[in-house]
Amino acid sequence: MTSLADVAVIGGSGLYSLLEDAEEHVLDTPFGAPSDPVTVATVGGRRTAFLPRHGKDHRFPPHRIPYRANLWALREIGVRQVLAPCAVGGLRPELGPGTFVVPDQLIDRTSGRIQTFYDTGAVHVNFADPYCATGRAAVTKVAAEHGIETHDGTMVVVEGPRFSSRAESRWFTAMGGAVVNMTGHPEAVLARELALCYTSIALVTDLDAGVEGDHGVTMDEVFAAFAANTERLRSVLLDVIPALPEHPDDPCQHALDGMPV
Ligand SMILES: CSC[C@H]1O[C@H](OP(=O)(O)O)[C@H](O)[C@@H]1O
Ligand SMILES: Nc1ncnc2[nH]cnc12
Questions:
Q1: Where does substrate bind (predicted)?
Q2: Which atom of ligand 1 is nearest to the CA of 182?
């Protein structure tokens, strides 16, 4: 297939569209259909694809998202760099709702999700640094230009769809977690297995159960906090896209070098 886009944004909870005057592409993959048709438009001179990971009507809960089909479809249309906004819970009191975190590490606490494309042969990608250094730097710089402070930190990804118990949440904080969500994995490793640059942009929507004393996390508060901050996130995303390199040469792009694929 000829290249339709080289950058993609995978939207999460509360971010179901991004691009204006976009063309729609219905795609299929060896792993089934992606969550929705992919929309493509030009942003700051860059051909950009958008895909809502839960579907635009949020019909896929985090444990049922077709992660492999989503990443495969994007790679198939030429994408080499992925921006992955998501809603997260803060695991530290200073990371409250409205805070932007650009994760630099990941702890996988999911279970039962397929997290590879390669069921035969010796394909073992390097995942020491799950996120793209260039993408992270671009997000941090552009956010600062928008007057938004960003934080580094480790993202813990839980299986869901339930939120964590207070004990689990306190344990994640003690393990070094900064934020917690339900979709950051296997998305990150599947991107790496296709040699894509992958950058997560985490918007804190709540303080997780172990941090806040009273009621624990509710879905309504997540959606409300996300809605209150969507425009800030949207404007950062649209400015990060043209700030990404046209010819990325990060280690992520070489993740499959020497592998039998
Ligand atoms: C809507 S509450 C929990 C839900 O929100 C986050 O979604 P996303 O990561 O796609 O922004 C979280 O991971 C859960 O899927
Ligand atoms: N506290 C939380 N735990 C897991 N996923 C989330 N997404 C948003 N807030 C979350």
A1: 182, 206-208
A2: 13
CB 58 within 8 A of CB 64: no
Q: Give residues with Cβ within 8 angstroms of 255, minimum separation 6.
A: 125, 126, 192, 193, 195
**Nearest bound ligand to CA 224?**
1
**Cα 142 to averaged position of ligand 1 atoms, centre (Å):** 24
Average pLDDT rounded to a whole number, residues 153-177: 98
- Nearest atom in ligand 2 to the alpha carbon of residue 207 is 1
CB 142 within 8 Å of CB 240? yes
Element (H, E) at 89: strand 81-90
| Ligand 1 nearest-atom number relative to CA 203 | 11
In this predicted model, what pLDDT tens digit does every residue of 182-237 receive, in sequence order? 999 999 999 999 999 999 999 999 999 999 777 889 999 999 999 999 999 999 99
> Using a 6 Å CB cutoff, which residues line ligand 2?
87-89, 158, 163-164, 180-182, 205-206, 208, 217, 222
Give the pocket of ligand 1 (CB within 6 Å). Answer: 12-13, 53-54, 62, 86-87, 160, 181-183, 219, 222-223
Q: What are phi and psi of 31, to 5 degrees?
A: -110, 15
Contact 148, 236 (CB under 8 A): yes
Taking only the tens place, the pLDDT of each residue in 15-34 is: 999 999 999 999 999 999 99
Share of the chain above pLDDT 70, in %: 100
**Cβ contacts of residue 250 below 8 Å, gap of 6+?**
132, 133, 134, 197
Angle in degrees, CA 20, 21, 23, rounded to 5: 115
